[in-house]
Amino acid sequence: MPARAITIYRQEQTQHQSSKHVVHHSRKSSSQVVKKKQVQATEAMAEPAYTVPDFRERAPEGMQEYQRMAAHFGRDLVNLQQELHRMKVATHEQVKNIEITREVKGMSLRKDVPAEVPKAPDFLVSLRSHTVWEKTPVKLFCTVSGQPNPIVKWYRNDVAIEPLSAPGKYKIENKYGVHSLIISRCAVTDSGVYSVVATNPQGKATSKATVCVRRPQGGGELSHLPGQVPLLSRVHRSKLEVTLLDSFGVTFGTEGESISLVANYVVVPDLPNLPPEVMWYRDDTLLMASRWTEMSIGGGVAKLALPHLNKDDEGLYTVRFWTKDGTTEHSAYLFVKDATPTVAGAPGAPMDVTVSDANADYVLVSWKPPNTTHEAPITGYFVDRRKSGTKDWVQCNDSPVKVCKLPVHGLTEGASYHFRARAVNKDGISLPSRMSCGVTSAEVESDVEVIKIEGKYDIAIRQEELQGVYVTIPGPPTNVHATEINKTYIVLSWTPPSPRGRAPVWYLIEKCEGDSHIWQRVNTAVQLRSPRYPVFDMEDKKSYRFRIITINKYGSSEPSEPTAPIQKVDPYVCLVCAGVPSAPGQVIASRNTKTSAFVQWEAPKHTNNLMGYYVDASVIGSKTWFPCNHRPYKHTRFVVHGLVPGDTYVFRVQAVNAYGLSEESQESAPLFIDAALSTPSSPYGISLLNCNGSSMTLAWKRPKHTGGSKITSYYLDKREAESVAWKEVSPSPAVHRVFTVENLTGGVFYEFKVQAVNLAGVGLPSEPSKAFACEAWTMAEPGPAYDISFWEVRDSSILVQWRAPVYSGEGPITGYFVDMAKKGSSDFVTVNAEPVGHCYLKVTGLEIGASYVFRVRAVNDKGVGKASDVSDPVCAKALPGTKEIVCGVDEETGDIFLNFEACEVSETSKFSWSKSYNEITESSRVSITSSGRKSKLTFVNPETEDLGIYSVAVTDTDGVSSSYSVNEEELNKVLDLSYNIRHPTVPLKTELNYEILEKGHVRFWVQALKLSSSVNYRFIVNDKAVTSAEGCKISHDVSTGIIQMTVEHFTKASEGTYTIQIHDGKAKSQSSLVLVGDAFKVALKEAEFQRKEHIRKQGPHFSEYLSFHVTDDCTVMLVCKLANVKKETTFSWFKEDEEITVDVPPNPMSGSCSLPIPMFSRKDQGIYKAVLGDDRGKDTSVYDISGKVFEDIINAIASIAGSSASELVLQCTPEGIRLQCYMKYYTEEMKTSWFHRDSKISSSEKMRIGGTSEMAWMQICEPTDKEKGHYTIEIHDGKKPHSRTFDLSGQAYTDAYAEFQRLKAAAFAEKNRGRVVGGLPDVVTIMEKKSLSLTCTVWGDPSPEVTWFKNEQEVLSDDRFKITFEGGKFSSLTINSVYVEDSGKYSINVRNKYGGEFVEITVSVYKQGEEIPEPKLGQMSRSAPTPKPATPAPQSVKTPTPQTPTPSIKSPTPTPPPSVKSPTPTPAPKSPTPPRSMRSPTPPRSMRSPTPTKK
Predict the structure, then answer these.
(1) Can you name the residues that pair with 1104 across neighbouring β-strands?
(2) Helix, strand, or coil here: 391?
(3) Order of strands, sheet of 138-147, starting from the edge strand that comes earlier in the sequence
(4) What is the pTM of this model?
(5) 1342: Cα within 13 Å, side-chain hemisphere
(6) Half-sphere exposure of 55 toward its Cβ, with a 13 Å CA cutoff?
(7) Which of 383, 516, 1018, 1213 is 20 to 30 Å apart from 1077, CA to CA?
(8) In angstroms, rounded to a whole number, what is the distance separating the alpha carbons of residues 534 and 440?
(9) pLDDT > 90? residue 1477
(10) Is the predicted pLDDT of residue 788 greater than 80, yes or no?
(11) Is the four-CA dihedral 343, 347, 353, 356 of positive or negative sign?
(12) Cα(767)–Cα(756) distance, rounded to whole angstroms?
């Protein structure tokens, strides 16, 4: 066994036995373990040797196994080496011959190739990594450029690949500049890093890629590199033949949009379940499916969808198919412009946000700056972060950072983050960039090394275990230095200590200012575990030194060696060493296509970590730059797309790096956008126009492609039909497309060919013409017309033009016939029934989009001549962007012109104007000016002879042309407009008018559409000029165009005619106003009124006169607003000239006063007046509430009351059934109607209608079954009715009728019961020994019984107590000679069969000489007024004459209390007289007329 294999095998044995950390895996069968060990040994033979440390070598316990394996593999290796040596010798000579042959061919080719600018090699397409299955081929390819052509060599793991060393294994190709390496039947040992090196005298370039070869599961050996690829079917995709059809072109998009790139293909064989393998690339990056890119293939379509565009997506997109012969691909550029910013003027969003140097302490976020053309310069950037799984973005930096990278610290260890950037300028903040990929903040360096072993164990070894001694305290770090320095921060880096100690370590950073030795901790609150950290806290213009200390749980190390002094540097100050790149060099632009240009430039002298370039363009004369690319482009050449054909552009370039954009380069030379210059294509359509026997006149059609330059001449060759040799017709070329060939032999047939010449050279020759016989033409009819052309091509019409025949026959040509046929058809139809006398004809009525061919036949007196050659097909469809001629008048000079703007021009294009399709060359009647895409024909002095059809054609275009017919009506119209411009008037927006101002001033004014600052004017009144003076003010306002005169004293003498004359430069105008008769009287009356109003408003006055509104509680409010009041101002209300006293005095200082009128009704009609006054004057407002005003108030009340109306409520009374509707306020003046079964009810004895202030009611007296049905109340407020309905039928009517009968009986009983109707006092005070007489009037039907009581004991008539009852009406109790013992409570009980009542009297007897005692009043139990106490008399005291009491209820029949349940009274046992407090007008039946207990 070779030494290399022995070393590796010993290493594996040592690893198994020296590991101290063993991780167990699931067990497998012993046969699998043996098999994997064999596989590992085989792999070890192909790997570079690994030197095992001495302390890990073991004693030779396994030497026996080693010797057995060495003998087995050694024999195979010797046989393989012998076979390889034989193959090398056999092919050595063949290799030398091939190389010599290639070198000879290369030398011969270099002689023919003109000298080019030397250039170092550059990979246009770099190598890409591949993961393939075992026994399948893989192809690595790249594209390299350079001058001279580079020599390309291939390497595997830095070892040159020699195809002949392994015949059939490697195949190296170079086709059309694409270098490829094909590895057939890959083995696992072919995995590795492959590189290609391109070298020429100018330098060297390298590209690398990784190839990973995997073995399918169960196939024996397992790949040692990660990755999973699905199994291939038996037919490998590389066996398919793929042909690309239509594919995506240059595409333009905007951020936020979605776009799809589609490539159509044909595959053979077309297997539905096996589409071809396709790969998509952006620039040199292989794209994978993600949230930003979606890929699909099938059905002959390969599609790449970009669902949300960002500028990160801009670049060159390539789709590559694996085919039978290798690959086929297509590329096109995608441009993505900035989305509209949220703030005008804000910059575009940054792009390509990436995160690097991620560790537990910080991550470094970097991005690319956006391009700025018209925006303000970028002043800095904000960086935002977001934790994965959340939606909230957190800003990382408080102030904008100028450089395009920022260390972000303060992250949570183990958390995953996304980052984005926003650019800032003076106008605002840009939209955010696309967020970065997720990155985890975690420690990336560890002192633990894990060795993976296929089998049972994974072995983990700590670095301290490799140390010879046991160390716990770590050593100091080494190599402390600043890896990045800028204005904002510096990044310190160092080498971790060795030894690290036997525990995890962290670091402390210390700094000191200058050469001082005062050290200060930097990261006091942060434990650094990574050997890198950004330091922000540094003052400007100060230098610092730094040192690092290592710490673990056992202690801290000594400080490291301090750094040299470090100072923050502004990269923008030192542009050469660290800031933005210098400006790119010379910019050269050249033509590419009709819509693109090829721009190249010199790289800047100082690149400073160049990211790429931005290219800007500007149309000549616009002074506005726009970006051509929106993502930095890394090469020094770029194709600018999306340009407008016919415009002229200049270009500039800026270099980009992390510090921003460089200065702009110098502008390129102006470039007219057109196709690149080339020689013209071949002419065609050679025709014979005339022959006289010794010469022939020929014509031909111009080449379809002029090559981007004007065709200057043509060369003609001829030959006899029987000869093969061509001869030049003339040494001087033909200038026109008609040429006469002289010195021909009569009767001989000749053939001709033509070549066109332009600035690029001589083009291809035309096809030989058909053989023309040199025989003189003698026919009487004309020869053929020629040079048929098409102009003014529109969707349904075409103008056909031709040239007259050279041979006219035996008479002059009198006209032409035009024949037409659809393309592909030979059925020609004559367009014109009669011959036209000119060489053009407008054909109309064509089918949109159809193609036609034409021919022309000339006519003379002898007949119709030979038809011309058939024209080229023409499609009846207008060119995109076609515009027509516009007739106009110059606003400054008044010149009449025809203007035309071409939709397409070339650098050699010219505008050709014609009248009646005859070219205008020199004319005294018109002048022609052209510039860019526009051309103008101006009439010098338009007259009738200028009428006609004017047309314009643009040469060297695809038929750009137009025409315009100037008729007499059109000419007169523009002549009038021209006259007005040359003889201008001041246009007036309004004529002279007047308005009445306050104080009675009158303003006369006129408004012009436009006035200059030098305008002059004057007012004339009754033929007399008026100037600005006292009582008359004249002024004007240029901005509004208003000229005005204000007359302060407008009187009867002001009647007359008012005129204003205006002079503004050359323009004049005049306007008049007649104010006489009735018109003047109206103006004068209004002026006098305004004058009086002004005087009135000098003192307190009403700013708003009296008006009304109705509140929500239906109170009518009279309101007015006051102005110019003071504390002394008084305010009074009057009605019918009588002052109204209000509860709350009005307050004029509040600015408004109001008079409430509650319970409004007809009695409130009248004339109301509000008077306001003080020492400055008085003002009055009068309001007449009657007629229409009264009706409006009632309607307003009705609207509120009707909206608040309740539903109809049923109420029974002794007289009948009543329906009631409650509302906020009701008055009989409201338009209220009652309906029964849709029939209006009028108030009558049967149906009574009334109401109170709170409700409206309708009563049915003595109801019968006829009154059943629906009842409705309708309240109308003048606009709409408010209705409420009640259904009085069924059970509702039955219950109501029963209640009515009950109440009727109860009312009858109440009416006829016994009662005291008057005469008794409440209290009687009398002196001892006087006579007392208590007399009262009683009533009842039938006549009641009367009983008197004293102190609740019945009084019987005797000598002292005399009781009388006369006529059934008058009852009295007389006490002769009263004593003190007679004091007490006396009462009378009046009753009959329907009931009765008690009346109490308090009698107080005092002795002579005593003070009259204070009377104690009782309470009456009836509604009659309480009589005054009786005056004591010497003989007797009598009660007053009885009075009839006033009823206490308003309804016709009083409603009895609810306790009355039946009309028949129920006798009750007699009881003592009840207390007065229990009395009521209608006491309960149980309390009426009790029968007192007799003693």
Answers:
(1) 1121
(2) coil
(3) 119-125, 138-147, 178-183, 170-175
(4) 0.46
(5) 3
(6) 6
(7) 1018
(8) 18
(9) no
(10) yes
(11) negative
(12) 13
